[in-house]
Sequence to fold (1224 residues):
Amino acid sequence: MRLKDFTSNLKRSDPQTFRRLSLIQTMEITIKFTINGKIVKVEVPPHWTLLRLLREKLGLTGTKEGCGIGECGACTVVMDGRPINACLILAPKAEGRSVETVEGLGDQVFLHPLQQSFIDHGAVQCGFCTPGILMSAKTLLDGNPHPTKEEVKGAISGHLCRCTGYQQIVEAIEDTGKKRKVIR
Amino acid sequence: MIPPFDYIIPETLEEACNILWEAGKGVGVIAGGTDLVIGLRNGDHSPRLLIDITRIPELRKIEEQDGRILIGAAVTHSEIVSSPLLKKYGKILSDAASVIGSPQIRNLGTIGGNIVNASPAADSLPPLMVLNAVGKIVSREGAREAPLDQLFKGPYETNLKPHEILVHIGFEKLSSVMRSSFIRLARREAMAIARMSMAVVLRIERSSNLIKDIRISPGAVMPRPQRMPEVEDFLKGKSPDEAILKTASQKVSGVMVLTSGVRSSTPYKAPVVEALFLRAMRSCLEDRG
Amino acid sequence: MRRQVGANIPKVDGLEKVLGEVRYGADLPAKEPLCLKVVRSPKSHAKIVRIEMDEALRIPGVERVFTAKDIPGKNLVGTITKDQPILCSDRVRYIGDPVALVAAKTSEAAEAAANKVVVVYEDLPALNHPEEALKLNGPLIHDKGNLLFEFHVIKGDVQKGLRESHLIIEKTYQTTWVDHAYLEPDAGISFLDEKERVTVVCPTQNVHYDQKEVASVLGLSLDQVRIIQCATGGGFGGRLDITIQCLLALAVFHLKKPVKIVYSREEVFQVTSKRHPLTIRYKSGVKEDGTLIAVEVEILGDTGAYASYGPTVCIRSAVHATGPYLIPNVKVRSRMVYTNNSWSGAMRGFGVPQMAFAHESQMDLLAQALKIDPLEFRLKNCLRNGSETATGQTLMTSVGIGETLRKVKECRDKANHSREDPKRPFIKRGVGVGSMWYGIGNTGIANPSTAQMEIDPNGEVRLYIGVADIGQGSDTVLLQIASEGLGIPLKEIRVIRADTALTTDAGATSASRQTYISGNAILDAINYLKQEAIKEAGPLLNMDEKDLFYEEGKVKARTCLTTSLPVREVARRSGKVIKGEGSFDPETTRLDSKTGQGAPYATYAFATHLAEVEVDTETGKVRVNRVVASHDVGRAIHPKNVIGQITGGVAMGMGFALMEEYVPGGTTSFVNYLIPTSKDVPEVIPILVEENEPSGPFGAKGVGEPALIPCAPAILNAITDAIGERIYHLPANLERVLETVRKKKAGNSNH
Fold:
C-alpha cells in the first residue's frame, strides 16, 4: 500500500474506531476461549494476567506462580500449541485461543504417559515446578515424539527446578519418547 | 500488582493508528508483553489504555519483497527461529532469536517489542544493526522509514513518537558471499540476559582476499545498539590476518571504552569484547572455507 | 510381602503432584479470606519515630492495620535466640524488616493500603561488615552486643603441631549470601477451627516449632494454636524459621475471620533467611610424608540483623572445620556477628558447605605442594573406623569416606581426560575432587522424634508422624520403614502427618535427620505395637505371651508353625486399638563450652565428588561437564530418592560454586539471582556407598545436605586444575575466573 492510500483509508475507518473506543471504559471485558478442550466465556478485568484468570476465576490452581515475571516457568501453560508464561500474558490475549493446563493433561484414571513417567523416574520432589514442566514437555513430544537429551534440556530450559537438578526430569521425558517408539 | 487499564485489540493498522492518535496521553502499545507486563507489575508504567497490536495482519508476516526481507513487528522470536526465509537470508538474526530468554518467552516476545524496548542487552538488536535494518513506522500523520541506528536514543529510549507504531523491520537479503556470526555470553545457558554479545557481517573478496565489507555491532557494552564505523573503516580493504584482527579487536574495546566510559566492569568487559570480536571474525572466516 | 527397604516405590505424593491437584500455600481454599500485606522497612538501620495509618484505613475494603502494639504476647521469635520481632516497634534492623500489617478485602486494597502507611524513620548508622560490627564502642544492633556467638574446638596442641610441620599453608576463603530459592513463594491461610483454635495452614519445615512461636506471640497456650503443614514447595532450611505463620495468626486472633497471605518472589528474596557469608582463615600443617598434623582455623560469619540459626552455623562450621580427616592438633575459633545485612539462617548444610570449600582447597594446595595425588592424599588422611574426630569422638562404625574416595578414584583413573580442545584453544579442562563429612541431626543437643502407629478394630493401620515432607520424600521413606517394620504393605498404611493437633513433635526437617531419627522413632513405636499385639493375641490364641512372637504382620506361635493371627485380626477380634508410641533421640553428648570436645552426633554421612570442568580462559565462563558423586548414606531406603537428592544437591552446589550471589538491598528477583537451569547442570553419576549404620533404621543415615556439600569444592579444585591458579572467593563467576586467569598469565610472564 502506498502512503497516500494508507492515510485516506485511515480517515474512512474513523467512525467505527470511535464507537469501539467509547466501549472500552468498562471494568471487565468478556473473553471467549478454549480451556482444556472446553469453550468458556468469562468476564475478566483486562489488567489481570492469564495466570490470575486461571487460578482465581476458573479455579485451575494447578498452574503456579513462582516469580510473576517469566523467570521460573512454574506458570507455563500451552496456548495454541506453544508453551508460554501465563504470568506474562494479559488475560485479553487469550481471546479466541486454545489454552491447555495441567488439569487437562490427564486424570486419576488416565494419566498422560508423561505424568506416569515422572512418577516412575522420581522426577517429582516438591512438585511446584512439575505442572509447568509437564506442559513444556508435552508440547515437545507433540512435535518431536523422540527427542534427544539435548532437545529435552532445551525444551525445559525455561523452567527452574531447585530440588531435582533436572536429571530425573530429563530422563522421564526422554523415556516417554522412547516408550512411544516401542508401541509403534 | 498490575494496576487497572482498558484494553483494545484493533484488527487493522488504520484502527490502531486512529486509536493512538485520538486517545492521547496514557496510552500504551502492547505486542508480546514480555517486557511491558513486568513494567506494569513493577509500577514503571500505568497506562489507562493498552492497544494490542498482535492481531493486525501486516504486523504478523515475514515476507520477501524486492530483494528485502520484511519482518512484521509482532512476529515472535520463535517464528523468526523457525522461518526458512530467515535461515537463508538472515541467519544471524535467527541465531540470536534462538537464545533469547526461554522457549516460553520466545513464544510471546516479538521482534518489534525487542526494538521498541531498546534494551542495551537486547539480543536481536546487534544482528539487526549489522543487517542495516530499516524500520517502517506509521501513524495517522503518515509513514516513515527509520534506519535502526537512528531509532535508538539511549538505554530503553527510542525516538518513536507516542502515536507511532512500528509496522515492520526490513533488510536487504544477505547474499551468499556474505558471512555472519553472532556470539553471545551470559552467566547462564538459558533465561539470562546477555552479559555481552557480538554481531559481525563480513565479505571477503575472493580474488584479492581483502575485506570488502565489514559490519560490527556489539551488544550489552554500550548504552544503545551501535555500529563501530571506526573499526569497520580500519578493516576495509585489509587482509584478515591475525595481526590485523588483533589490532582491530583492540580498537573494538577502545571504541567501547570511549563510548561507555571507564566503569567498574571495564577491566572485565574490555578483554572479553576483544575475544568475542575475534571469535565472531574467525567464525566468519572459517565459514568461508 | 515385598521388601520395602531398598525398593524404588512410587512416591506417595507423586500422583497428586503430577495431576496438579496438590495444594500449596497459595492454592488453599478459604472462605472469603481477608488478604494480608506487610509494610516493610526501606532502611537498613533506623529508629521508628511514628507510624501514620489514617490514609491507609480510608481505602475502601481495608479492615485493619496492625502494628507491634497489637501483639498480645511476646513480640520476639527465634529458634535459639529470640531477638526477631514479628512487627518492629521501635527500630528496624535491615531492609525488609516488617513494620505493619494490613488486612483488606482484596489483595489490591491491601497493597494500596500498605503503600499508604507512612512510617517516619530516623536513620541510625548501619553496619554492613562483621569486622566493623565487632569494633569497640561502635553502634549496637542488639543491646547485648554485636557478637552473637563464639565457639571453639580445641584438641591437642596446635602450636606444637605447626612447629613439627614440614609444610604449612595458610589462606583466607570468602563466601557470600545464598538464597534457598525454593520455588514456592511463602503463602498460607489462617482461620479459627471447629475448636476455636487459631489454625495456620502453610508451608513449613517444622509445625511444632511454629506452634510454640505462634502461641508465644499471641500469649496463648499451645492447645489454642494449631499448625498444619500444606504441600511445601521446597525448603532447604529457609522454612525452618518463622516466615508468615505469626502474621497470619495475629490477624485471625484479632479479626476472627479467615485470612490469607501470599508473598511475591521479590518479598521472599528480601525477607527470608540466607546462607551465612563466612570468612575463613585456614592454616594447615603437614608432615613430610603427607600426614596432616595440625589445623588452625578462624571463622567469622555475618548473621545479619537477627540470630536465627547463627549459633548453629557457628558451632557446626567449627565442628566440621577439619573435614573428614584425622588431625591430632586442632584449634578452631568461630564467631557469628550481627550486622544490618539480610539475616542469615539455616541453609542446606549449616555452614559446612562453606567450610568444605576451605578445607578441600587446603587439601589440594597441600597435595600439590607435596607432589602427591590429591585423592591419595585424602585417602592417606581420611577418617576410618576407630578414628577420633576433632571433638574427641571415636567413630566405631560406618565411616565410609575411604570407600567414597576409592570409588571416585576408580572413575577418575578410567576416564581419559584431555586437557585441551584442539578446536577451541581458549578452553582449558580440569578435574577436581571434594570430600565432606556431615553429622546427622542437631549438634550435641537432644533432638528427639516421636511417632505413633496404631491398628484399629476396623483393620485400618495408621502412622502418626509430625514430620514435614518438603518434597524430599520423607512421607514415602518413613512409610517404607513403617511397612517393613510392621510387615504390612505400604498401600495399606495411612499416614497422618505434620498437624500439631493430630501428631506429636518430630523435630525439624533439617540436619538430614528425619530418615535416621524419625525412622527410628517409628521403629520404636512398632516395637511397642508388636508387644501390644502379642499381649492381645495371647487370649485369642489361648497361648501364653511368652510363646508368641511377631513376624510379617502376624502374631505367631514359637511352638506351632501353623498357629498365627494377622495383627489386624488381633485388633478386630479383641475390639481394641493396637497401638505403639515410640521415640528416638540420637546418642550424643553436649560439647564442652571451652574446648568443643564431645560426641555431637550419633552418626556421620560421608561423600566425595569428582567434577570435570572446562574453563573458557577468554571469558571466564565455566562449564561443568560431569560430576561423579559418591555418597555413603548408610542403607539407602529408597535409592531413587537418594539419587534425586544427589542430583539436586549437585545442581545447588554448582550454583553455589559458580553463579549464586545474593546482594542485600540489591537482589530482587530471579533476573538478578541466577540458579542453574537444565542447560547448565552437569551429567551426574551417582554412586551409593552403603556403609551400614547399626544405629540407623535398617542401617540408614542421611543424604539431604551431604548431597550439596562436596560439589562446590570439587568444582573449584577442577577450575584450579584447568587454569593453574586458585580462586578463594565464591562464587567463581565470570569476572573472578577471568581475573584469576589473567593473574596467572601475568605471573607466568613475570618469571
Summary: The domain at 1-174 of chain B is CATH 3.30.465.10 (Uridine Diphospho-n-acetylenolpyruvylglucosamine Reductase; domain 3). The mean pLDDT of chain B is 96.
